[in-house]
Amino acid sequence: MSRAGIGLCTTRGRASVRAFLCRMKPNVQPRRLRQRKGPVVASNKPSPSESALRSLDKQYWLQLGNDWPPARIAMLCEPMYGALLNNTIDTDACAKSLEARGARDFVKDALYDGIPDLSEGRRDVDVNSDFTPDPTIDLQGATHGSATSGATAGSDVTKRISPNILCYTFPRGEVTRLPEPSLNPPKGILDYHIMDPAALLPVLALGVQYGDRVLDLCAAPGNKTLALLQTGCCSNLVVNDSLMSRLNRLRHFLRSFLPHVSGDLVDFVNSDGRSWPGHESSTFDKVLVDVPCSADRHSILQDEDNIFINQRSGERRELPALQLSLLMYVICCHQTLGRLETLPSFTHEI
């Protein structure tokens, strides 16, 4: 074939392709993309997790001093999870199965056997060392601020903690993972919930007693709400969240563990916690407010949904004022001038 023939075929081929593209997308014309000029330069901008770690290094060095390096190592390690047993079904078989794998009920152990607190973290530790602090926390120290470890049966802290709270974890240094919860055939609900055991500390510190009317002001995603219901002590639990989408997910989450999550036992309210509509006509025996926070451990481990991105800098600056306003408002919802328990956010993160 001559060169003229080749050129004619090429021209016809291009015209056919152009006509085909125009028929498929009439509003799109084929064009050549511009190529970037100059060498590609790698960005030195830190990731959100790196920015979070730098910020925490500055903040906690000032607040904690030599206690920060071991705590930093613990926060960078793989999180430890626990299995919160569902008391609406028979827990004996589930507890025996977890104990056979080496798991222990950390609430019972802390109350009666005595588990060392985080004093191990007070040693001077090199940040680059392999030291791993004990992740267990003395419940008496967490709720009353004492330096003792463990609690004796019959003490005030023991009486305040519901015996129905059963949460199984593996010992420190154990790499075994908890098995996925199974569905209980008769009721169609899960036998336990895998969660961060630190989320139980506010519930234990609250000391819910039988017949208490309780308000969970910032309830989503629902770990603490489920723990409150597992105590079996709430005569009425009011669950509030500022976003309806989160409240609906919370309702669906609770239905996975409880046959009935409506009626007199649980009330769902969608409202801003700083202007909760029921404060004028309703008072509560106990109020749990898990205020929004910077989620330090999540922020230094994951870039997704990280509060340390530049677009959320304003939200991060407003957190202290939001936390204070929620705390001040929730005091107005309390029935009597009773005890106010607060847990440091740093303790909760560990």
UniProtKB/TrEMBL annotation:
Subcellular location: Mitochondrion
Keyword line: Methyltransferase, Mitochondrion, RNA-binding, rRNA processing, S-adenosyl-L-methionine, Transferase, Transit peptide
Reactions this protein catalyses: a cytidine in rRNA + S-adenosyl-L-methionine = a 5-methylcytidine in rRNA + S-adenosyl-L-homocysteine + H(+); a cytidine in mRNA + S-adenosyl-L-methionine = a 5-methylcytidine in mRNA + S-adenosyl-L-homocysteine + H(+)
Record-level GO BP terms: rRNA methylation
GO MF annotation, one: RNA binding
GO CC aspect terms: mitochondrial large ribosomal subunit
Keyword check for Transferase: yes
Principal cellular location given in the protein's record: mitochondrion
InterPro entries the record matches: MeTrfase_RsmB-F_NOP2_cat, MeTrfase_RsmB-F_NOP2_dom, RCMT, RsmB/NOL1/NOP2-like_CS, SAM-dependent_MTases_sf
Source superkingdom: Eukaryota
UniProt domain SAM-dependent MTase RsmB/NOP-type: residue ranges: 192-350
Region named Disordered: 30-52, 133-155
Binding annotation for S-adenosyl-L-methionine: C218, A219, A220, P221, G222, N223, K224, D241, D272, D290
Compositionally biased region (Low complexity): 141-155
A Pfam cross-reference name: Methyltr_RsmB-F
Family the entry assigns: Belongs to the class I-like SAM-binding methyltransferase superfamily. RsmB/NOP family.
Name of the molecule in the record: 5-cytosine rRNA methyltransferase NSUN4
Species assigned in the record: Eptatretus burgeri (Inshore hagfish)
Organism classification: Eukaryota, Metazoa, Chordata, Craniata, Vertebrata
